[in-house]
Specification:
The structure is a homodimer.
Chain A (H helix, E strand, L loop, with lengths): L1 E5 L6 H11 L6 E6 L3 E4 L6 E4 L1 E2 L8 E4 L6 H4 L2 H11 L4 E5 L2 H7 L7 E2 L15 E2 L4 E4 L2 E4 L4 H14 L1 H10 L18 H11 L6
Parallel strand pairs in A: 1-2, 1-6, 2-5, 6-7, 7-11, 8-9
Antiparallel strand pairs in A: 3-4, 10-11
């Protein structure tokens, strides 16, 4: 089962790496990193490069598509070539998935029209401009489309997807390999749990950026 | 505050990327990826490359050191040059940290002698051969040394470290940015929670590999 993870300059790395780490542990899953051009793509704040081993043309029919997010959604929504590839491969995927604002990429490609979907909490409103129905849940499945909330939610989504496709034992095995027994030292991981001033500060800082 | 994350061929990518994503969101933290040579390092199962922008010599006095793990601990424990760098930078770090079997790297460098530490559940026994005291906890702090359990535990460790160094608000902000409100669909993330046959199968598959 071929999984294509899209890379691009400006991506948020954990969006891609959470699901990658879960999926690569499943026997029979092949994970490949794909970009418009082969070679290094730089992360959102330029502190890290990841290598795309394959071009979009190299991977025309992945079974699973994963589009990671970015604080700069135009990096995907403003790239016609990438949007066309998303649209094309979605036609034949088993599962089409996104993490964080990667959902805006799926949406801009037309894939989420009329679909229930989620994204980073700061970007939920932006989904409506593409005709998607925003849902405040950590992982949302609508038919063959799975969308995850912000950044770290991709781990939960990937485990759910592996459970659906390969059975509970495969997902539990992946979970135990990555020892995913979360014990966050604070309880501030969603806007309804975090202190209000922190929520407000992030809305101020990133709110406009994430509108697709 | 300079954070050096060690890269090497064979590393488990999420070990590095969980903490990176937390730390890079904190104002005043500079994260750099360091390796014996500048350039691409390939992940544990060769499906992805990450770029080291800096050599060990480029980063002689990081404030925070992070050593990620690997299914092949010899990649670190068998590299005298990397061990010497770990030993040298540890002398002046504010915090020395590891994720997963990265602890075996710290241990082989002599940093964990007589210290309480943790690592991936499959590698806990191996810590004793270097004089460390294995602890079955997700995040262990002994003085300025923080060690995290397997792979995903680095996220929890980084949040705890940020809380300690920069205060609760900084950690809560980082947690909310990455929307870390975990909701794993299964409860199999530690050997005492996962089904026994899955624990046994992973011991069989990886147990010998992870002995340092």
């Amino acid at each position: 089962m071929q999984t294509a993870i899209l890379l691009y300059d400006g991506m948020t790395v954990l969006d891609a790496i959470g699901p990658y780490e879960v999926l690569q542990s499943v026997p029979g899953v092949e994970v490949c990193f794909v970009a418009r051009e082969r070679g290094e793509k730089r992360a959102d704040f330029k502190r890290l490069g990841l290598t795309a081993d394959y071009t979009l043309a190299d991977v025309p029919r992945p079974d699973i598509l994963l589009v990671p997010g970015t604080p700069f959604p135009q990096a995907v929504t403003g790239d016609p070539e990438v949007l066309e590839w998303i649209r094309a491969v979605h036609a034949t995927t088993t599962w089409t998935t996104s993490v964080c604002t990667g959902a805006l990429g799926l949406a801009a490609a037309g894939v989420l029209a009329g679909k229930r979907a989620t994204t980073h909490w700061l970007a939920l409103d932006a989904l409506t401009q593409f005709g998607a129905m925003p849902v405040t849940e950590r992982v949302v499945r609508d038919g063959k489309i799975w969308t995850a909330a912000g950044v770290s939610a991709g781990i939960d989504m990937a485990l759910a997807l592996v459970g659906e496709q390969f059975g509970a034992a495969a997902a539990q095995t992946a979970q135990l390999i990555i020892e995913y027994d979360p014990q966050p030292p604070f309880d501030a991981g969603s806007p309804d749990k975090a202190p209000a001033p922190i929520v407000a500060a992030l809305r101020e800082q990133f709110g406009k950026l994430l509108q697709g």
